[in-house]
Design goal:
The complex is a heterodimer of chains A (264) and B (621). Chain A is an alpha/beta fold. In chain A, 35% of the residues lie in helices and 11% in strands. Chain A has a domain of 178 residues: Rossmann fold (3-Layer(aba) Sandwich). Chain A contains seven helices and eight strands, in the order αβαβαβαβββαββαα. The longest helix of chain A is centred in the middle third of the chain and has 20 residues. Chain B folds into four domains: 203 residues, Rossmann fold; 80 residues, Translation factors (Elongation Factor Tu (Ef-tu), domain 3, Beta Barrel); 102 residues, Translation factors (Elongation Factor Tu (Ef-tu), domain 3); 181 residues, Rossmann fold. Chain B is 27% helix and 29% strand. In chain B, the strands form five sheets. Chain B has a six-stranded mixed β-sheet, with helices on both faces. In chain B, strands 7-8-13-11-10-14 form a six-stranded antiparallel β-barrel. The chains are: A alpha/beta (264), B alpha/beta (621).
Chain lengths: 264, 621
């Protein structure tokens, strides 16, 4: 079995296992490339119809192309989409550096919708190779009601045997894309012909490698305007995927700090 | 970078070893020599080291957590991705501290190969052995050993050879295959990607060994296990979704669903957007619709009719324990196996294994970080396999309330292997009513029963060959059992001596026992000198249709030269009377079904001959 098919099967297995063992589950749809791959894998796992809602936690600061994409594919893919809103920046911990503080709005938005809908499982498209605290994640990762990630005492996760038994105040973050790398995602998008937002393709010597809020996300220098060119570019790059995400650079452990409070 | 687009294979490698033996430095150096670390990451590490007033530390590449960096230890396992010219790699870094063993095991359960790192100065330490022992338990059979910090011991050939001998011995004792042993300096980058010129080491560097490694975990000829993960109802269709855990699933075959033991056939494969194949293999997640309308639930197993899993509610397992609370006998736990969970109790602790010297203790408590052999009882019938036979349906995790407290592998599920629904429903059946006849058993195990009667002089190699063939065929799924003359004499035949009359009785009893095994569907290997033709013929007469006489041939001179048990010496000095070949006769068979000459052939060839013979005569087809 080839590498992409192996990854695909692992993700399908995780999605099915999550759905069969957790009541009241939802999937985060951030409109980015990884998220779209995840939705695609859910179509495969559930044979064409996703049996739980998709949640877009909307900071209201996304690019207009992203909103257009959302409206189009919500209809085309016949999704059960729930929109969550985020509190204003004034309600967020002022001790955080500016970009991180802005990103933390999304954490609060997520917690809010978790509380409202009483979700016990949230499927999120994070990957190990994106960021080195994400590299330490489990496929099924427990969080308490405050969203706290107890990173110093994560549960054992043996083989593909995922524990889903937790006290009632705990919800699980499920990470079906954990084993994928950035280039795997692009190769799979190409193989499966998965739609993505145009911002990933270069225009006038720049493209977005990773999409976030428009005020804290910067494009990178690039002339890659097709899938093949992007894949080729990634084979040779020495800059990181999140180099355009301003929050990552503000403090040494800022990402861990955000994640331990419930960021994805 | 000259990266070949098509080398899309990915190897998952775990790095293990004692604390501070250089795991992180090795990974850092390997990636940096392969030119695969992003500049910003190097700058990050420099910044982190500067803030803490440290010299450059590769550990910060992987130790992402603040506590890890502040305390200078690895707490949790992490994974890092890179590629060589040959293939993609995922390196799994595992914590070396004993306290974080559960994290190390979490990392190890996804690895295909391990690198064991040993500090050339400190030598083999507690965690060195503990880690590799656990790897072997988890089914990782291949290890690359690197002896690190060679620069600090002046590339001393003798020190290297000494460590090499020690670790080879230990790894051999736990059945781990050493792919290579390499002297390295992770800090200098010697023999990792770049070769260090040494007069005494002409072997490969680490990267070459990694690039050339072939994962031999082949799936050829394995029995089918499709484990049901869920049942979806989509527009009038009832679709069983699940993963092929072993073997191949073909559209046109007949299958059986366990534990209900119902025969089924596949109506259609259900894949989105559409199924394009008639056959699915190990690792594939699929959906299927059956022709039969039957009750199926999560955790049920679809298999070939003649090679179904063991159905049992009691089995023996080897477990590892990482809870702070010790294991309690007869307390209710849950195990997670085959996508679902079952309530169980541990009914008996058979032994605790000391990982350091592999000594065993009986009747002791299972505490944090222990490995133990235990008996497990379950309320419901489980469909499982011996881990050695089918990995994926023979491993489980143990849950106590909300916590994963340990895990394990099935060592033996054979106790009630032959229980089928038939018998369970009719629990009042008296033992003399043979409810299950031989034909039923043959259908279930997929081979015919038989008696292989190995005759020959003492020391000719009967037991050695029998043991080897028993192991090989057992792993191929045969119901096979070896009866040894020496062992029988310790129990059943304890009252018999070596006088001719007693020898006759010894053979009669053995043949009768073999006959019972045949009724139970087994292939029995009997290793018995059985020197007299007349007695062997009597034995044959009990079950002539399945009796095969195998002559294990070696001259008396050769056997006496071997004298493994020291018996010939005793016979010569008169301390043993009536010793076959010396003071009692041995009558060679006239027309044995097979002659195996152990003087002309090595042990492996000899066992291969017998193995082939058994498969040809009684085999699965």
């Amino acid at each position: 079995m080839d590498h992409l098919t192996k990854l695909e099967n692992e993700s399908i297995f995780i999605l099915r296992q999550a759905y069969s063992s957790i009541k009241n589950i939802a999937m985060l749809w951030s409109l980015g490339k990884d998220s779209n791959v995840m939705v695609w894998l859910a179509f495969k796992a559930f044979l064409g119809k996703i049996p739980f809602p998709l949640v877009h936690v909307d900071t209201k600061k996304k690019f207009k192309e992203m909103y257009a994409f959302r409206d189009k594919y919500e209809k085309l893919w016949n999704l059960n989409l729930i929109l969550g809103d985020c509190p204003p920046i004034s309600k967020i911990d002022p001790s955080l550096p500016p970009a991180a503080r802005s990103a933390a709005r999304k954490t609060e938005g997520l917690k809010k919708i978790l509380n409202e809908k009483k979700f016990k499982g949230i499927i999120a498209g994070i990957r190990r190779d994106e960021q080195n605290t994400r590299a330490k994640e489990r496929f099924f990762s427990p969080r308490d009601e405050t969203g706290k990630w107890d990173v110093k005492n994560q549960p054992a996760e043996l083989w593909n045997s995922f524990n889903t038994e937790y006290p009632s105040n705990v919800h699980l973050r499920i990470h079906p894309l954990l084993s994928w790398t950035e280039i795997d995602i692009w190769r799979y998008i190409k193989r499966e012909n998965i739609p993505i937002v145009d911002l990933y393709f270069a225009q006038n010597g720049k493209r977005y490698r990773s999409l976030g809020d428009k005020d804290i996300t910067k494009p990178v220098e690039s002339n890659a305007s097709t899938l093949d060119e992007i894949i080729k570019e990634l084979q040779n790059t020495k800059t990181s995927e999140r180099s355009g995400r301003l929050m990552d650079k503000e403090e040494e452990n800022i990402f861990e700090k955000l994640r331990s409070k419930g960021y994805m | 970078m000259n990266f070949k687009q098509n080398s899309e294979d990915t190897l998952r490698v775990i790095i293990v070893g004692h604390v501070d033996h250089g795991k992180s430095t090795l990974i850092g150096k390997l990636l940096s020599d392969l030119n695969q670390i992003q500049e910003e990451k190097i700058n990050d590490i420099k910044k982190i080291c500067k803030t803490r007033g440290l010299k450059f530390e590769w550990a910060f590449l992987l130790d992402a957590l603040k506590t890890e960096r502040d305390q200078g230890i690895t707490i949790d396992t992490t994974q890092i991705f890179f590629r060589s010219d040959r293939r993609n790699y995922v390196f799994i870094d595992a914590p070396g501290h004993k306290e974080f063993l559960k994290n190390m095991i979490t990392g190890a359960t996804s690895a295909q190969l391990a690198i064991l790192i040993i500090d050339g100065l400190e030598g083999i330490q507690e965690q060195t052995k503990r880690h590799v022992f656990l790897l072997s338990l988890l089914g990782i059979k291949d290890v690359i050993v690197v002896i690190n910090k060679m620069d600090l011991i002046n590339y001393d050939k003798n020190k290297f050879a000494d460590l090499e001998a020690q670790i080879s011995k230990y790894l051999k004792s736990i059945n781990i295959k050493i792919t290579a042993i390499i002297p390295i300096s992770a800090w200098n980058g010697d023999n990792i990607v770049r070769k260090k010129t040494l007069r005494w080491y002409k072997g490969k560097v680490l990267l070459e060994v990694l690039d050339q490694f072939k994962d031999n975990a082949v799936d050829h000829g394995m029995p089918l296990r499709f484990v049901v993960q869920d049942i979806y109802k989509i527009s009038e269709k009832r679709i069983l979704v699940g993963r092929v855990e072993s073997g191949k699933l073909k559209k046109k075959s007949k299958y059986v669903i366990s534990p209900s033991n119902t025969k089924v056939s596949i109506k259609s494969f259900e894949i989105w957007p559409k199924s394009t194949k008639n056959e699915y293999v190990t690792g594939e997640c699929i959906g299927l619709e059956l022709n039969e309308k039957i009750f199926v639930e999560k955790g049920n197993v679809l298999s070939e009719i003649t090679r179904s899993p063991s159905l049992t509610n009691t089995f023996e397992a080897r477990i590892f324990w990482f809870s702070n609370q010790r294991l309690r006998i007869n307390k209710k736990y849950k195990i997670k196996i085959n996508t679902t969970d079952y309530e169980i109790i541990f009914s008996k602790i058979k032994k605790i294994i000391n990982i350091d010297d592999l000594t065993e203790k009986k009747n002791d408590d299972v505490e944090k970080n222990n490995v133990a052999d235990v008996l497990i009882d379950s309320e419901s019938i489980l469909c499982i396999d011996n881990f050695e036979l089918v990995n994926n349906t023979g491993k489980f995790s143990v849950i106590d309330q909300f916590e994963v407290v340990g895990g394990g592998v099935v060592k033996s599920a054979s106790k009630s292997e032959l229980i089928d629904s038939h018998i369970r429903i009719n629990e009042n059946v008296k033992s003399e009513d043979f409810f299950v006849n031989e034909i039923d058993r043959v259908l279930k195990v997929g081979h015919r029963p038989g008696i292989l009667w190995l005759t020959g002089l003492s020391g000719s190699g009967k037991s050695t060959i029998a043991k080897e063939v028993e192991k090989k065929l057992f792993l191929k799924g045969y119901n096979i059992f070896s009866l040894d003359g020496d062992n029988l004499r310790q129990g059943l035949n304890r009252d018999l001596d070596f006088m001719p009359e007693s020898r006759v009785e010894n053979i009669r009893r053995t043949a009768e026992v073999a006959s019972l095994f045949v009724s139970a569907g087994f292939i029995v290997l009997i290793s018995l000198i059985s020197p007299y033709k007349v007695d062997r013929n009597k034995a044959r007469a009990i079950r002539p249709e399945v009796f095969k006489e195998i002559f294990i041939k070696a001259s008396i001179e050769e056997c006496e030269k071997r004298d493994v048990k020291g018996l010939y010496a005793k016979a010569r000095s008169g301390r043993i009377k009536n010793f076959t070949g010396i003071t009692a006769p041995y009558e060679e068979p006239n027309k044995p079904e097979l002659i195996i000459d152990t003087e002309k052939n090595g042990i492996l060839e000899c066992s291969k001959m017998l193995e082939k013979f058994v498969e040809k005569e009684f085999g699965k087809k």
